[in-house]
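for the recovery benchmark. tokens below, seq after
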């Protein structure tokens, strides 16, 4: 009996995964260098006389522009530190502004009232802010969920009351406490030295990003991610969730205190508005706007939020807004109203924050291509 063999049909060529296509490959080769490019651009800003009308009021190297950029950089680092709690560990704290305020007022009081050199004041402030975060976190972390958020808010409100009532005559009450610049290094005093404050803010941002990235990529960071996803599973594995959350809480508080010291030098003093719960809510908005749990999203969210807050304040008092009908000029003159509207639109159209913008635009572009080119 003759065996009939079926004709051999050549197998179709294997489909190349999307991540191995030349376009995606080029992007993945370039992407690791983008942070270095951003750092180089940030470094050369003080050397640039490029005017940006409508974006900044003067050239990039003008003292006013550098001060605005320095504040934006500080809050970019502050948002990255807060994301260590919210985005990477899943802890919603409403009292994170307390540790930032501790850094601001601690630096101001130690320099102005105690007459300490700046380096000693900074060291004591960061140490004190870290210890404060450890002590309060040890109490607050006995609760979970909304109870944890309320306990942290209660601690922050106590701090705000102490500052507003000028406890011990140290804080200046509602008038704030100007910084005594006579005890500062000459390189950090005066309008002409604003560039040095800009360098200091950039160094703080780089330090926070480095610390958060190192923690997130370490075994501790993987445990924190597990706590965010399923805390009970971490407990079943024999690990103590309380201990790891306390480490994240303490580290985030210490980074916030360091940022407070830098902010005190930039603005030249302390004011009671930094102790309000509104600042913590602003940090939450920064993180959500940029993309929680991502490396660069909170940084972008913090920088963009503070820039818009500064520009919208000037925009709200401009002649162009005042000339509009009252039904438009009144809401547009309120920066928080405009920021809230932009935030709602951003969350609605980009739920993953600014960090997801690239992937969403890529999907949109591919959906517009013909099927043969996708």
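predicted aa per position
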């Amino acid at each position: 009996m003759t065996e009939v063999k079926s004709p051999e049909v050549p197998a179709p060529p294997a489909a190349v995964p999307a991540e191995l296509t030349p376009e995606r490959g080029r992007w993945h080769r370039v992407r690791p260098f983008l942070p270095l490019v951003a750092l180089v651009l940030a470094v050369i800003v003080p050397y640039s006389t490029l005017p940006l009308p409508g974006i900044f009021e003067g050239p990039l190297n003008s003292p006013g522009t550098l001060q605005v950029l320095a504040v934006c950089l500080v809050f970019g680092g502050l948002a990255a530190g807060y994301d260590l709690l919210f985005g990477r560990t899943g802890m919603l704290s409403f009292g994170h502004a307390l540790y930032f305020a501790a850094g601001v007022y601690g630096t101001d009081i130690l320099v102005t009232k105690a007459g300490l050199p700046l380096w000693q004041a900074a060291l004591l402030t960061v140490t004190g802010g870290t210890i404060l975060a450890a002590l309060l976190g040890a109490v607050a972390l006995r609760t979970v969920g909304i109870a944890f958020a309320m306990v942290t808010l209660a601690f922050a409100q106590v701090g705000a009351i102490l500052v507003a009532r000028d406890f011990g005559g140290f804080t200046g009450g509602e008038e704030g406490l100007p910084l005594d610049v006579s005890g500062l290094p000459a390189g950090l005093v005066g309008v002409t030295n604003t560039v040095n404050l800009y360098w200091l803010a950039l160094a703080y941002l780089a330090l926070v990003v480095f610390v958060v990235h190192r923690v997130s990529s370490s075994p501790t960071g993987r445990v924190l991610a597990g706590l965010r996803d399923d805390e009970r599973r971490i407990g079943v594995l024999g690990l103590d969730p309380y201990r790891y959350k306390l480490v994240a809480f303490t580290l985030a508080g210490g980074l916030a205190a360091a940022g407070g010291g830098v902010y005190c030098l930039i603005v030249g003093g302390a004011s009671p508005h930094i102790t309000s719960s509104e600042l913590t809510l602003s940090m939450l908005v920064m993180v959500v706007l940029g993309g929680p749990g991502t490396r660069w999203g909170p940084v972008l969210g913090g920088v963009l939020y503070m820039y818009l807050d500064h520009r919208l304040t000037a925009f709200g008092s401009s002649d162009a807004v005042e000339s509009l009908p009252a039904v438009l000029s009144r809401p547009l003159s309120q920066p928080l109203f405009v920021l809230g509207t932009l935030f709602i639109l951003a969350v609605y159209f980009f739920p993953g924050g600014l960090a997801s913008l690239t992937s969403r635009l890529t999907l949109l572009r591919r959906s517009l291509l013909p099927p043969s080119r996708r």
